[in-house]
Design goal:
The protein is an alpha+beta fold. Helices cover 50% and strands 17% of the residues.
Length: 175
């Protein structure tokens, strides 16, 4: 489009100078075209620099990623250190999930797999590389607190067929 506009600008300048006999029109149109070319070149460089400097993903994609993570709030205590970047059409995401410390490694990993799959589905065709780091809840003395959400995580894993029903502990409900 830059070539088309610059060529059209040259033709318009020639026609206006010929028809109106005002020679000042030619340098004014030339200056406007030069500004447009510089603007286009700068925008191309900015886009290239974002890729080379590992810029975070656009806000609408970040909102989609956060939406997926927020859907799992009944099963995770929180998430933090969410970092993203792009490389062409590839999306990279790194996030820390705080989970109930009573979840087994298998349970935590299965929950992470579910979250990764949902993020990949939401990215619609983009190649994704997702790293999830698991952290235990902050209450080491009494992890059976309401915030840990371990039983809720086990239930969703069972519902989605990722965990055998026998793994839920027959304990009393949270106080």
């Amino acid at each position: 489009t830059v070539d088309l506009l610059t060529n059209a600008g040259v033709l318009v300048a020639l026609l206006l100078v010929k028809l109106l006999n005002i020679p000042l029109i030619d340098p004014l149109i030339a200056a406007a075209m030069a500004i447009y070319i510089m603007y286009t070149a700068i925008m191309l460089h900015v886009d290239a620099l974002k890729i080379m400097l590992d810029a975070r993903i656009p806000d609408e994609q970040m909102a989609m990623l956060e939406e997926v993570l927020n859907r799992y709030s009944p099963y995770i205590q929180d998430y933090h250190h969410l970092r993203t970047r792009t490389d062409g059409n590839k999306l990279f995401a790194d996030v820390h999930l705080r989970l109930c410390r009573d979840l087994t490694l298998h349970e935590a990993h299965s929950l992470g797999d579910m979250i990764e799959k949902e993020i990949r589905n939401a990215c619609e065709g983009r190649t994704t590389d997702i790293i999830i780091h698991f952290e235990p809840c902050k209450n080491p003395e009494n992890c059976r607190c309401q915030d840990c959400k371990g039983d809720a995580a086990r239930l969703i894993l069972q519902e989605r067929g990722r965990l055998a029903k026998s793994t839920i502990k027959d304990e009393e409900p949270h106080a």
